[in-house]
Amino acid sequence: MINLMKSAQLFSAILIIFSGCASSQYGDKVKEPFQGSAYESNNRFFRGTGKGVSNMDKIARGKADIDAKAQLAGQVNTTMKQVADQYIGQRENGQGADAADKFQSLIREVMNTDISDLRKIGEQKYFNNKTNEYTVFIAYEIKKNAMFRFMKKQAKTDQKIDERQREVIEKIIDEELKKTEEAEGDK
Predict the structure, then answer these.
(1) Is pLDDT above 60 for 8?
(2) Cβ atoms within 10 Å of 34's Cβ, excluding its own
(3) Is the dihedral of CA 60, 64, 69, 70 positive or negative?
(4) Which domains does the chain have, with CATH numbers?
C-alpha cells in the first residue's frame, strides 16, 4: 500500500513537471496565417500582412487591408530613406541633402497614390461563434523593381523636382533597380 502511494505521488510529480514544460510563462504560442519567410520582405519583394477583427466581416477585411498596406508603405519609406541617407553620406553637401528631401517627398507622393504592382498573395477569414467576431488576415506583396520603376516614372513627371535633382533621384533608383535585378537573376 505504501509503495502504491509513493508510485502515485511520483506519477503526480512527473505529470506536473511535464505539464509545466508544455506551456511557457508567456502563454500558449499562436500560429496565425501568413507567417514565416514566404510572407516576409526580401531582396525581391516588399511584403506586408494585416489582421482585422470586427463583428462585421467587411469592417474586419478593411482593417486587415489597411494594416497590410500600412506595413508595406512603411517598408518602402524606410528603404528609400536609407538609400537617400547613403546618398547624402556619399555627397556630403547641401545639394545631396536637398535631393534627399525631394526624394522623401517623392516617396510620400507615391505612397499617397496607388501602390504600384500591389498583389494580394493571400486572404483568410474566420468567424468566432463565441464572440460573434470575424477575423480577417491579408497578405500583399510588391515587386521591388516594379515599385522602383514606378517611382522613377513619378520623378520624371514631378514638376517640383529640378533637372539636377531628377538626375540624382534617377541614379539612386537605378542603383536599387540593379540590385533587385541581380536578385532576380540569383533565384
Answers:
(1) no
(2) 21
(3) positive
(4) 33-181 (3.10.28.20)
